[in-house]
TrEMBL record:
Subcellular location: Cell membrane
Protein name per the record: Substrate-binding region of ABC-type glycine betaine transport system
GO-annotated cellular components: ATP-binding cassette (ABC) transporter complex
Principal localisation: membrane
Keywords in alphabetical order: Cell membrane, Membrane, Signal, Transport
Classification via CDD domains: PBP2_OpuAC_like
Residue ranges constituting the ABC-type glycine betaine transport system substrate-binding domain according to the UniProt record: 25-272
UniProt keyword DNA repair, yes or no: no
Stored SUPFAM superfamilies: Periplasmic binding protein-like II (SSF53850)
Length: 286
């Protein structure tokens, strides 16, 4: 009888441990529609599911919903926060709750972008040439969704430089389709863009100089997490803190995705070709 009770107790402990381990391997990543965010989220989903049997869910939401969701533990992690400026306003209400972790990309860019053939170099010049940059009959700056940080900064730039233009917000793919159409015809167009982005490898583009520094200086991208995540999953925390990408590695990942037309297929190809780099990141958790 004593042996049976001991066996049952041991079985119960084993079952509980197995259940806890399985629960630990469930991961919800909050994402947004920026090209590099989609790229790295799919990359990590594939790595963690294929190598370590994680069950990873990608949840695409607005910026506001992302930050509140992390604070409420609806998501476990998100892979992109730009600091010290771009995402500071989203972080501010939750800065005492969210965990800002390791930096994985340094030297971002953000601002208004035109094709290199455009006879314009600064944002103030847009005030005089606004009529040339029309969209559907109105002088316009083409942007992404209205809830994004770059959209808010662009509204500030329009006011700061007194531009007789409006920002037309749409999705990232719609904006890029408009850029492509204008580029093929060598027509004037101004869009909101950021670095890293695959567009700078695909097209010959330039940032307009921003003498009032509305868009700020170069920044750093970090990953961040819900309250208590780093204690709940110290292994993944160590791995993600060891993760670093540069223009070559991140640009290559985004280019594969753009060429494939599918984030999973493109990420799979990139992973196959970059095993040594991935192994370096994963070694931090050993």
């Amino acid at each position: 009888m004593k042996t049976t009770l001991c066996s049952l107790a041991a079985a119960a402990i084993f079952t509980a441990a197995t259940t806890a381990q399985a629960e630990d391997k469930t991961l919800v990543i909050g994402t947004n529609n920026w090209a590099e965010n989609i790229a790295v989220a799919n990359m990590w989903k594939l790595i963690l599911e294929n190598r370590y049997d994680y069950d990873v869910e990608l949840s695409d939401v607005s910026k506001n919903a992302l930050y509140s969701g992390l604070a409420n533990s609806d998501f476990d992690i998100s892979l992109e926060i730009w600091l010290p400026n771009t995402d500071a306003r989203y972080l501010e209400p939750y800065k005492d709750q969210l965990e800002i972790n390791g930096a994985w990309y340094e030297g971002t860019g953000l601002g208004l972008v035109v094709p290199s053939y455009a006879d314009i170099d600064t944002i103030p010049e847009l005030k005089e040439q606004a009529e040339e940059y029309g969209y559907q009959g109105s002088p316009s700056i083409l942007g992404i969704d209205s809830g994004s940080a770059i959209a808010g900064l662009t509204d500030e730039a329009i006011d700061a430089y007194d531009l007789p233009m409006e920002q037309v917000n749409s999705s990232g793919p719609a904006m890029m389709a408009a850029l492509d159409a204008a580029y093929q015809q060598e027509e004037p167009i101004v869009v909101t863009l950021w670095s890293p982005h695959w567009a700078f490898a695909e097209y010959d583009l330039k940032y307009l100089e921003d003498p009032k520094n509305v868009y700020g200086d170069n920044e750093t991208i970090y990953w961040f997490s819900r309250p208590g995540f780093t204690e709940d999953d110290p292994w993944l925390t160590e791995v993600l803190n060891a993760w670093h990408m540069d223009d070559d590695s991140l640009g290559g990942l985004m280019a594969e995705i753009e060429q494939a037309g599918d984030p999973v297929e493109g990420a799979e190809t990139w992973i196959e070709d970059n095993q040594d780099l991935i192994d370096e990141w994963l070694a931090a958790g050993e």
